[in-house]
Write a structure and sequence with these properties.
Elements: H1 2-17, H2 41-44, H3 50-70, H4 74-89, H5 99-129, E1 131-132, H6 134-138, H7 150-162, H8 173-183, H9 187-197, H10 201-211, H11 220-225, E2 231-232, H12 245-250, H13 265-283, H14 286-295, H15 297-307, H16 312-315, H17 323-340, E3 358-363, H18 368-375, H19 379-385, E4 399-404, H20 409-417, E5 425-431, H21 438-445, H22 449-455, E6 469-475, E7 486-488, E8 497-501, H23 508-514, H24 519-526, E9 538-542
Helix pairs in contact: 1-5, 3-4, 3-5, 4-5, 8-17, 10-13, 13-14, 14-15, 14-17, 18-19, 21-22, 23-24
């Protein structure tokens, strides 16, 4: 994190002093999105040239970062951007000791700055569309280590003795203080969260039992998210078990343009169980494992080494952990005590169960509103059954197991097979650039602004930020209609082609995303060896890639 912040600050300062090195053609006041840095061909052909070697390494990191950004892998993108900058800065004598490295350094910084702005905007949009994570609020509340009253202790002891616990619960002053929070200022929040969790807890307990970890760890989800599938934290963690993107992927959760499996309670529960199990294997103690779940295992390990503590409660007394992590374990212990005996603490819990469903393998993108018509259910029902879908459509690039109410599977299969042309939709990806509005994007793609707004759950009049990811719904019978920014290709006898005129601010990456293809495909179709493009030039794009 420190390296990333350094890179962002350094990038900002340097850009203020350096001219842009990636403008195409002569001098111009036009602001364009920089192309990825590329080493001069002559230097790149000489592997013994240390500058060329360093440039190639930095270019590889930058390319990987741009690919990760296009795929929505924000953490991985930023890590690769940092590596690209650090690689160039490591050149003997500094990045400006060789003019080739200096040129690459400037272009890399330009590219990274633009993408960082886009990524920040995208993250802000995701946070705005989600619900705040419980841990952001609950974790910052004051937890006291002052001695609790005898009555508070006696009630907690009675609650523990009356229930079967498979996780050793500590009844120290910090835990009793957290019980007091649940009984007092957090009373309504706790009752609502525990009621919401009733439909998820049986499944969480089942998975935890299958993975061989204490079932009472299910209440981690209460503290993390209040059992909200759309919860999104300041740390960019998401879902019931609050995974950041990188850790989620490490444990098998897909996070891309179309889906975010961190929001699927069943899949996220399996990932959380395996992560907690690995943490316990690392620490040999559930309290330290929980601290690692909150702060990261590296942070806890460094604190233990620095302060020579092997017990969480001893480590909690040091400065090794931030306040949220110091509160985190007591909050979970307290949640277990109260949640196992809610009536003893005066809570009235509403019982609920998850709806049943069956799965239908759907190949390609289908508007959920069309699916809802097919199965005769509100679209919100389908969104509730498929919380991992980030768009109002199934993924365009794969087969997807769509959940539908029981008994509707065959109906949906037949309906999609017989779907009339005016109900079919092709989806393009689009990343908003500077100066673009919903209206201008709609005109460029030959669809209405309302259609784009509905497909992306936006308010039609909303101002779009650069970096916002959109899907553009295009009726199937108009999917290849040429718009003002696309010209008909004479070579369309054996395949569907369009000719795209490059706009200021375009990059190969953004054009590929907008047309549902890849940078490599664009390069192959147009005989490009690099990634530099010039505004006003024309690219050939095959809209029917299945025949390539």
């Amino acid at each position: 994190m420190e390296g990333r912040l350094w890179a962002a600050r350094f990038c900002t300062v340097l850009l203020a002093a350096l001219p842009l090195g990636c403008a195409s053609g002569g001098a111009s006041s036009r602001v364009t999105t920089p192309a990825p840095a590329a080493a001069p061909k002559r230097a790149a052909q000489n592997p013994a040239d240390p500058a060329a070697v360093l440039i190639a390494q930095a270019e590889a990191h930058l390319k990987a970062g741009l690919a990760a950004a296009d795929a929505g892998e924000i953490d991985e993108a930023r890590n690769e951007f940092d590596r690209a900058i650090e690689t160039l800065a490591s050149f003997p004598g500094g990045a400006f000791a060789d003019p080739r490295v200096a040129e690459c350094y400037r272009r890399t910084l330009d590219t990274v700055q633009v993408r960082e702005v886009e990524l920040a905007a995208a993250a802000s949009d995701e946070a705005a569309a989600a619900e705040p994570a419980a841990i952001d609020g609950v974790g910052s509340l004051p937890v006291s280590d002052a001695p609790a009253s005898a009555a508070t202790m006696a009630q907690a002891v009675a609650a523990v003795e009356s229930e079967t616990l498979d996780l050793p619960v500590e009844l120290n002053d910090a835990v009793l203080s957290c019980i007091g929070l649940y009984e007092g200022r957090l009373r309504d929040w706790f009752q609502e969260a525990l009621s919401r969790g009733q439909k998820y807890l049986p499944g969480i307990r089942r998975v935890f039992a299958e993975e061989g970890i204490p079932q009472d760890l299910a209440y981690v989800a209460l503290v993390e998210s209040a059992f909200k599938t759309s919860a999104y934290s300041r740390a960019k963690a998401k879902g019931v078990f609050q995974f950041v993107s990188a850790t989620g992927k490490r444990y098998g959760l897909a996070v891309d343009w179309w889906v975010d499996e961190r929001s699927d309670p069943e899949k996220a529960t399996r990932a959380a169980a395996r992560y907690l199990k690995d943490l316990y294997g690392l620490f040999g103690d559930w309290n330290l494992a929980l601290a690692g779940y909150n702060a990261g295992e590296g942070k806890v390990l460094r604190g233990m080494a620095r302060y020579r503590k092997q017990d969480y409660w001893d480590l909690r007394k040091t400065r090794a952990l931030r306040p949220e992590t110091k509160n985190y374990v007591p909050l979970i212990h307290a949640a277990i005590v109260v949640a196992k005996s809610p009536q003893r603490y005066g809570f009235v819990i509403t019982q609920d169960t998850l709806p049943e469903w069956e799965e239908v393998a759907v190949k390609g993108a289908y508007d959920l509103r069309v699916v809802a018509e097919c199965v005769g259910e509100p679209v919100e029902t389908l969104r509730g059954l498929n919380p991992e879908l980030r768009r109002l459509a199934t993924p365009a690039d794969r087969s997807y197991d769509l959940r539908v109410p029981p008994g509707r599977g065959e109906t949906l299969r037949q309906c999609l097979a017989d779907l009339p042309a005016d109900k079919k939709v092709a989806y393009r990806k689009h990343v908003v650039r500077r100066g673009q509005t919903l209206a201008s994007i709609a005109r460029a793609n030959g669809v209405s602004a309302q259609a784009i707004a509905e497909a992306n759950l936006l308010v039609a009049q909303r101002r779009l930020r650069p970096g916002t990811e959109l899907v553009i719904p295009v009726p199937a019978n108009k999917a290849h209609v040429v718009t003002a920014r696309h010209e008909a290709s004479p070579a369309s006898k054996d395949r569907d082609n369009v000719r795209y005129r490059i706009q200021p601010g375009d990059t190969l990456s953004s054009i590929a995303a907008e047309h549902g293809t890849t940078v490599r495909q664009l390069q192959a179709w147009n005989g490009l060896s690099g990634t530099r493009i010039t505004a006003g030039s024309v690219l050939r794009i095959h809209t029917d890639t299945s025949r390539d």
